[in-house]
Amino acid sequence: MPLTDKFGRSIRDLRISITDRCNYKCVYCRSGSDGPQFPEMAIDEYLRIARVFVGLGITKVRLTGGEPLLRNGLVEMVSELARMRTVESGALDIAITTNGHLLEDMAQPLADAGLSRVTVSMDAVDPGRFARITRVPNGFEQVLAGVRAAQRPGLNPVKINCVLLRGLNDDQITAFGRFARDEGVIVRFIEFMPLEEDRVWSPEIVVTLHEILQRMAEFMPLREVQHAHSETARRYLFEDGVGEIGIVAPVSHPFCGHCSRVRVTSDGKIRTCLFSVREHDLAAVMESGASDDELADFICRVIDHKEARHHIGEPGFVPASRTMVHIGG
Ligand code: SAM
Q1: 194: alpha, beta or left, given left = phi > 0 and alpha = psi -120 to 50?
Q2: Domain boundaries, the chain
Q3: Residue 179 C-alpha to ligand 1 middle, in angstroms?
């Protein structure tokens, strides 16, 4: 019986943040300064957590951060995850979300270790615009090299995450359409969520699914294709079949009703929603000497209280107790 919450949602997708350090300072995520950081657990402790979750029916593990490629021991961690089997005895789906800055050298070792897929964040295809968003000079070429390096050992299809902000990079939509077709990647536009350190979010800045589709149609018509029930992105193919884009629209089209995700932060707290205001201290339970069965009981009790939905944009919205960089997106 897979892990299920009180609303009947099956929880199959675990995201582990293995560090909240990051070498980028993207304007929609971080402030310009480093700020306080949460402690990191040992890689073996994340692996133990993953093993217990997998025993409860998790089929996908995504490593994130912060920037996961900054974490020593990442390749070894992926090979250990690749040895785990799901409760149905299948291989675990192992993915990483990265800003891609260090991917050029790490793509091959990660693929050799058993990584299944990679998602690279890239918020502009114009290098100057890219630098303004990430606050890192010359990052674009580095990240593009990382994307291409990931394709060589077959980490395909590489997905590109792009957060659109009105007035900053919404002029990049059609250029990303061209990029998806030329590079053979899936570009996924993500609506900006109120999870940034600078608290600048407002509904006016969000570029919605509807607008993205309209602008992309001016470049080339799209047709929607079926997406998996638990998938967050709506999927679209260009009319000639070359190139795919996705749109993740948690603000204009929330998908909480079929959320299959649970997150563990770098310091070992379980978050049952990106917008949780309450965390559950798995690290403390581990430190108390709990057995794997006791950890599993703790996790099941926590999952039972998974939030029904987020409340973005509603009166009285209470911000999440951490910002995205400290949660793990
Ligand atoms: N450093 C890695 C990266 O850049 O992909 C992984 C961590 S990052 C927090 C994970 C994802 O969250 C990225 O794709 C990023 O674009 C997205 N993200 C960060 N802040 C966001 C926000 N306020 N709204 C929507 N997506 C956000």
Answers
A1: beta
A2: 13-327
A3: 20
